[in-house]
Every structure is written in structure tokens, then in C-alpha cells.
Specification:
alpha/beta; five-stranded parallel β-sheet; two-stranded antiparallel sheet; 7 strands; about 10% strand
């Protein structure tokens, strides 16, 4: 049986250890760039996956990520960013990293082979009907990722599979399969490199489109961010000023009036008579800011 594509040797890697450092780095860079291009062929499947995930979140259910090793770290990085970037409730995001917290200090390989652990992690997390689980594995055959996907499916959750090898076992029975067909690694089998890069790009695209579907992005701004530090408070002010045209001072005043909600501040600047009216518009628009702005505008024009 031929080796998986992710285990093959790169044609130009012979003598890598003897190359001038700059030449070696150019080869490494070209490997990363070639891996990044693999995402282009996965656009449609990433789009379908984002729709499923957004539906789960908008209906009050959860989005879970499962993986082992470096693939699990890519998944975890995406999951951890969602609450801060798009204001998605932390209780709606589940991270299943093989080995749990222990893997953050020692990424031991044994956990990835533990199928019973994966099934137990899924059950302990309470994954079930209405939820969505994204399971990722570079090879597409990692036992932990396979078992997590299988258990989630049995419990009624939708399953999205992400792998870097065509015909991956992980794709079997998945609701959406995302194939990131990266070329052989410059360091053979080191899938934290090209495969990991492609996974990171795909996750960035996936979660951003989820945010767009949920109405948390407007004109390239993250309008549902949680401004819980100085940097993000400054960003919130810039978002409100850019979208509405009010001054920075006025934007800051409106953000404070809105208890830090960028969406509410934007609606106040757009003509909502008070915070309650802004929140009512958001509720009517199912948290989609653009639709909420239209609601506020229509009420202003009708004199309500």
C-alpha cells in the first residue's frame, strides 16, 4: 500500500541538511506557499461547513472542534478565538484536544491512538443533536479524530471532516468533507508544516464565514467583538466611527452607554432612540447588524 500523500518525500528536499541556510529557508517557504494554495480547491466545502456550523450556533447549540497533535492545536486556536472575535458565547464552543490540558505542555503522541478517550470526551462534553463537530486530522486516519467524529454522529450531531489526504477514512459518513490536498512536506511527514498551514488558513476562512452568517461582520469589521482590554476598546471606537461617521469621542460615549456592545453603539449612532430600542432591533434581526440598521432606519422614516 503506497504511503499517504502527507508521508511522501518532497522532490527537492534531498540534501536539505547540507544546503546554505538561506536556500533551505527558501525551500521551506515555497513548501508553505504551495500548501496554502491547496485551500483554493476546498472553497465550496468550507462554505457548506460554515453554513452548518452557523445554523448550530444560531439555534443555540454548540460548535465543537476535535483533533490530536498539531492538527488539534490548529483546531483549538480557531475555537479559542471565536468568543473574543465574534462574541460567540464560550459555552457554545467546545474544544476536544486529545490528552486535554496535558497536551499543552507535552504533545505526546499516544493520546491520538486512544479511541475510547475520544468517545468519552465527546460524551462528557454532552455533544448531541443540533450540535456540530469539526474533526481534523492531517492523515485523515488518526484514531482519536475518527472516533470523535463517529461518536458525535451517533449522538445526532452534524460532522465536518478536515484532512489532507484524498480518500481519508475521516471523510466516511461526514456531512461535509474538507480536503486540503497539500504536497509532500519538505521534512517528510512533519504535518505541522504545510498541512498545518493549510488547516490554519481553512479554519480562518471557515470561522470568518460563520461570523458573517451570524451577522457579526459588517463591511469587514468584527462588530460583535468583546472589548475587554485597552486594544480592543480602541478597536471598538474605530469600528463605530468608520461605520457611522461619528467622532471618536462620540463613539466612546455610545460604547459606554451600550455597556461595551459595538452593535448597540452603532445602532444608537444610526438613530435608535435608546439602548432598549437598539436591542429590540437586534433581536428582531436575529443579531444581524445590517438588518438591524435597516429596521432602525425604517422606524425613523416612519416616525416610530
Amino acid at each position: 500500500m503506497p504511503p499517504a500523500k502527507t508521508e511522501e518525500r518532497h522532490d527537492n528536499a534531498k540534501g536539505l541538511d547540507l544546503m546554505h541556510p538561506a536556500l533551505a529557508l527558501r525551500l521551506l517557504a515555497s513548501g508553505q506557499q504551495a500548501a496554502a494554495k491547496s485551500v483554493d480547491a476546498a472553497i465550496e466545502s468550507i462554505s457548506a461547513a460554515a453554513s452548518i456550523a452557523a445554523e448550530a450556533l444560531s439555534s443555540g447549540h454548540r460548535l465543537a472542534y476535535a483533533g490530536a497533535g498539531s492538527s488539534g492545536l490548529m483546531a483549538m486556536a480557531d475555537a479559542l478565538e471565536l468568543p473574543g472575535t465574534y462574541g460567540i458565547a464560550q459555552e457554545q464552543i467546545v474544544i476536544l484536544l486529545a490528552g486535554g490540558a496535558a497536551s499543552l505542555s507535552n504533545l505526546a503522541g499516544g493520546y491520538e491512538d486512544d479511541m475510547d478517550l475520544a468517545r468519552e470526551d465527546v460524551r462528557k462534553a454532552g455533544i448531541g443533536a443540533g450540535d456540530c463537530l469539526v474533526s481534523v486530522s492531517a492523515s485523515g486516519s488518526t484514531p482519536y479524530a475518527l472516533a470523535a467524529a463517529d461518536e458525535a454522529r451517533k449522538l445526532g450531531a452534524k460532522v465536518i471532516a478536515v484532512a489532507n489526504n484524498p480518500g481519508a477514512a475521516l471523510f466516511r459518513d461526514a456531512d461535509v468533507s474538507i480536503l486540503l490536498q497539500t504536497p509532500p512536506e519538505v521534512v517528510s511527514g512533519s504535518t505541522r508544516m504545510g498541512a498545518g498551514t493549510a488547516q490554519k488558513i481553512a479554519f480562518n476562512m471557515f470561522s470568518t464565514l460563520v461570523g458573517i452568517h451570524l451577522g457579526h461582520v459588517l463591511d469587514g469589521h468584527m462588530v460583535n467583538l468583546r472589548a475587554d482590554n485597552i486594544k480592543l476598546h480602541g478597536r471598538a471606537i474605530r469600528i463605530v466611527t468608520d461605520i457611522t461617521g461619528v467622532s471618536a469621542a462620540e463613539a466612546g460615549r455610545l460604547i459606554n452607554m451600550a455597556s461595551g456592545s459595538v452593535k448597540v453603539a452603532i445602532l444608537l449612532a444610526s438613530g435608535a432612540k435608546d439602548v432598549a430600542a437598539a436591542e429590540a432591533a437586534l433581536k428582531e434581526a436575529k443579531q444581524n447588524l445590517r438588518r438591524a440598521i435597516d429596521i432602525v432606519s425604517a422606524k425613523m422614516n416612519s416616525g416610530i
